[in-house]
Design brief:
single chain; 139 residues; alpha+beta; four-stranded antiparallel sheet; 4 strands; 42% helix; globular; signal
C-alpha cells in the first residue's frame, strides 16, 4: 500500500515538473557536482585559474587575450555554477563574460551584457577602491 502511494506521489510530482519545465524559468542553486568543480577551480593559484577560464572562453569562440578578473557567483543557473570573468584585450578594451560550469567541467559562455535579457543571473565583480588608493598615496 505504501509503495503504491509513494510511486503515485512521485509520478504526479514528476508530471507537474515536466509540464512546468518548458514554461518556468527557474534560477536554482547549482548541483553539488558543479559546486565541487567550481571549488576546485577556486583553489588553483590565480594564474592557473585565469588560464582555465581563458581557455574556456577561447574554445567557445570568444577572444580573450588576458583574464584580468574572475569571481565565482553565489548563484548559478539550473545545474551550473557561474563565474564572472573580465577579459582585457588591450589597454582600453575589456569584455565581461558569464561562464557557466557544468559538473563535468564543460563551460557555457554568455556576454554579461546579455544575461539580463536571457533571464540569467547577472555578473558580479568585486568593487575596486582604486580612487581611495590614489587619494591615500598622494598624501
Amino acid at each position: 500500500m505504501f509503495r503504491k502511494s509513494f510511486f503515485n506521489a512521485v509520478l504526479s510530482t514528476g508530471a507537474v515538473l515536466s509540464f512546468c519545465l518548458p514554461f518556468c524559468a527557474v534560477q536554482a542553486a547549482p548541483v553539488a557536482a558543479s559546486l565541487a568543480y567550481s571549488q576546485r577551480l577556486q583553489q588553483l593559484p590565480e594564474i592557473q585559474r585565469f588560464a582555465v577560464l581563458r581557455g574556456a572562453l577561447n574554445d567557445s569562440g570568444f577572444f580573450c587575450r588576458r583574464v584580468s578578473a574572475a569571481t565565482p557567483n553565489k548563484e548559478g543557473y539550473d545545474n551550473l555554477a557561474m563565474w564572472s570573468v573580465r577579459c582585457q584585450n588591450d589597454n582600453s578594451h575589456s569584455q565581461d563574460f558569464a561562464v557557466f560550469l557544468g559538473p563535468d567541467g564543460s563551460a557555457q559562455i554568455r556576454q554579461c551584457k546579455d544575461t539580463k535579457t536571457l533571464n540569467l543571473p547577472v555578473c558580479n565583480f568585486p568593487v575596486v577602491q582604486e580612487k581611495a588608493k590614489d587619494k591615500s598615496s598622494k598624501k
